[in-house]
């Protein structure tokens, strides 16, 4: 076999069985005896045979044993944890997880959907940056889709989402009960479904407490830690600065922390998402935490239910959040 790749015929000859028997072993059929299976697997190892997955995928009706995951930012720890949860489920189902990043670009998301469908993935998980649902012109056909964390409007596809409203409510209640009324909001994209939901909850909860949301205390369109830092510095150096800040994701919280360090000051701070080493902060921070891996895991589990033939109505699954108080105690001003 020197100079060429081993084939099923080579495995069959070495194991003393027919090619059909080798095929059944490779495809994990239960119709092969344990003794024969062991002999074929030994021959596979000795010959170095690997099934041609590309050729297998090209056969009509054949599953690809791959699923796609589309995320918006490879550098964000949130994305890697979502991927880890999805990967755990995919591996348990003998599937390969293919990952693509959109860098928060809606057109890049559509291009990736089209590319994954072209590669005949068995299903798609999407952390969406596109407020519009998948367009039929992308050729999605019958490929199952589950949206994770962020999903466009519409009820056609399954969604696994955080309980964003409860998370914002727990964080703001803590600030309000500490006596704060001028609570600033540092956020990213108001077009992302998570950002829009959290901002809406912030305004609603303040209004319910008789506090009119102040547009001058709301800073959106911060797409990086640096931007969040500069926006926070701008707010805190005003004549009437806020006494507390709510940041709507981990990068925003990091930017706020950098601003506080730069200015050498402190304000009460609550943020959405966990932070590494938050317990080492020199002042107290309330963080809305949850398991991103659980988002990925539950999304993948629902996706495989669809792959297995579940044709029931679209489902929305909610992953709970909780409020953790981290760092050292900070006393709000009287």
From TrEMBL:
Signal peptide location in the record? none
The UniProt keyword set, sorted, is:
DNA-binding, Transcription, Transcription regulation
Per its UniProt record, what PROSITE patterns does this chain match?
Answer: HTH_LACI_1 (PS00356), HTH_LACI_2 (PS50932)
CDD domains to which the protein is assigned, alphabetical: HTH_LacI, PBP1_LacI_sugar_binding-like
Q: Where is the HTH lacI-type domain?
A: 6-60
Q: Which GO terms describe its molecular function?
A: DNA-binding transcription factor activity; transcription cis-regulatory region binding
Keyword Isomerase listed: no
Q: What is the protein named? A: LacI family transcriptional regulator
What is the protein's species of origin? Microlunatus elymi
């Amino acid at each position: 076999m020197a100079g060429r790749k081993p084939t099923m015929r080579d495995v069959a000859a070495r194991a003393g069985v027919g090619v059909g028997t080798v095929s059944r072993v490779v495809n994990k059929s239960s119709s092969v005896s344990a003794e024969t299976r062991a002999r074929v697997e030994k021959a596979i190892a000795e010959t170095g045979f690997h099934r041609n997955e590309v050729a297998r995928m090209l056969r009509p009706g054949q599953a690809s044993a791959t699923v796609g995951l589309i995320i918006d930012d490879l550098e964000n720890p949130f994305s890697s944890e979502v991927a880890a949860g999805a990967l755990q489920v995919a591996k348990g189902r003998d599937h390969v997880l293919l990952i693509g990043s959109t860098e928060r670009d809606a057109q890049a998301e559509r291009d990736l959907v089209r590319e994954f469908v072209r590669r005949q993935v068995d299903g798609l998980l999407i952390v969406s940056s596109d407020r519009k649902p998948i367009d039929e012109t992308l050729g999605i056909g019958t490929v199952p889709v589950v949206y994770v964390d962020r999903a466009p409007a519409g009820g056609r596809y399954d969604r696994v989402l955080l309980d964003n409203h409860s998370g914002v409510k727990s964080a703001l209640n803590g600030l309000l009960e500490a006596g704060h009324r001028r609570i600033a909001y540092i956020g990213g994209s108001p077009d992302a479904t998570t950002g829009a939901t959290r901002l809406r909850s912030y305004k609603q909860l303040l209004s319910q407490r008789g506090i009119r949301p102040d547009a001058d205390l709301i800073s959106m369109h911060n797409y990086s830690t640096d931007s969040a830092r500069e926006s926070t510095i701008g707010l805190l150096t005003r004549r009437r600065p806020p006494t507390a800040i709510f940041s709507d994701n981990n990068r925003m919280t990091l930017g706020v922390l950098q601003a506080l360090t730069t200015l050498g000051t402190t304000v009460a701070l609550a943020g959405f998402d966990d932070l590494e080493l938050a317990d080492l902060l020199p002042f107290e921070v309330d963080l809305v935490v949850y398991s991103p891996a659980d988002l990925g895991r539950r999304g993948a589990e629902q996706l495989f239910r669809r792959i297995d033939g579940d044709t029931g109505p679209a489902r929305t699954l909610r992953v709970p959040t909780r409020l953790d108080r981290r760092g050292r105690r900070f006393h709000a001003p009287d």
